[in-house]
Structures are given as structure tokens and as C-alpha cells.
Amino acid sequence: MGTTKQRRAILAILSAGSGHMTVERVFEEARRMFPNIGKGTVYRNLNHMADEGEIRRLHLAGRPILFDRNAAAHQHVVCVECGAIADIPDIEHEKIRNLTGQSAQVVEYALTISVICESCLAERTKTETA
Question: Is residue 94 located within the same domain as residue 123?
């Protein structure tokens, strides 16, 4: 699929935002630039870009699929209270091989670390001491 104005705009939206966005959020932002753009166009472009490795799909339990502008191998940390998502560097493949066995073929892996972020902890402390 060639690079279209819409596709470039979608990449810009992902880059300018948190980097982890739903189709709905990307669609809302894209409509500001292209009022007549359809949700199907946004959805198709996101899926084509993910299939081509230009962006990544992120599947988190209990959430809609997110699209991640960072296509490099990496994992995620997610706050269980506010839902904030941050990237963490990829785990070395050799460490994964040690866990799975040297002869196993690792096809894909995803690690999500669930936390209560510093901001939420600070808010809890503030509320508890008030």
C-alpha cells in the first residue's frame, strides 16, 4: 500500500499522541484534518501498517486493541489505576531462549507489567493523609 495523505496523517497522529491509541481515538484526530475520512479508512490503514511492521498492535486484557507507533521490539508497563501505558525496552532474546530452551522457536512474546504508577501512588498517599 502506498503512502497516502491519510496514512501520513495517521502516523503523525500516533507520533504526536501517547503512541498507544485506539482506532476511535485515531479516527477522532484524523477527522480534524480530513472531515470526510471514514472510520473504515482509518481502521484499514492502521491494520495495513501493523501487518507491514510499521506500527504494532497492542492487546491488553480488558481493553480495546491499541496501535503503537513504536514498531521496535519492546514491552509495556501499565498502571492498573489510571491506565497509563509506558514502553520498556525489549528483553534480550537470549534471556527468552534460556526460559524456553535453546531448540524452541520463539514466534512472538508479549510482556505487560501491571503497576500502580508513581502519580497514582502519590494521589493515594495524599488522600490517605488528608
Answer: yes
Q: DSSP labels for 19-48?
A: SEE-HHHHHHHHHHH-TT--HHHHHHHHHH
Could you give the CA distance from residue 13 to residue 126 in angstroms, rounded to a whole number?
A: 35
- Residues 21 and 43: their CA atoms lie apart, in Å, by 12
Residues 17, 57, single domain; the answer is yes
Q: What is the C-alpha to C-alpha distance for residues 36 and 33, in angstroms, rounded to an integer?
A: 9
Residue 79 belongs to what H/E stretch? strand 74-79
Q: Which domain holds residue 127?
A: 72-130
> Quick one: 59 and 14 in the same domain?
yes
SS3 5: helix
CA pair distance 43, 101, nearest whole angstrom: 38
Number of structural domains in the chain? 2
pLDDT tens-digit map of 72-127: 888 899 999 999 999 988 777 677 778 888 788 877 778 889 999 999 999 988 88
The answer to whether 39 and 27 are in contact (CB under 8 A) is: yes
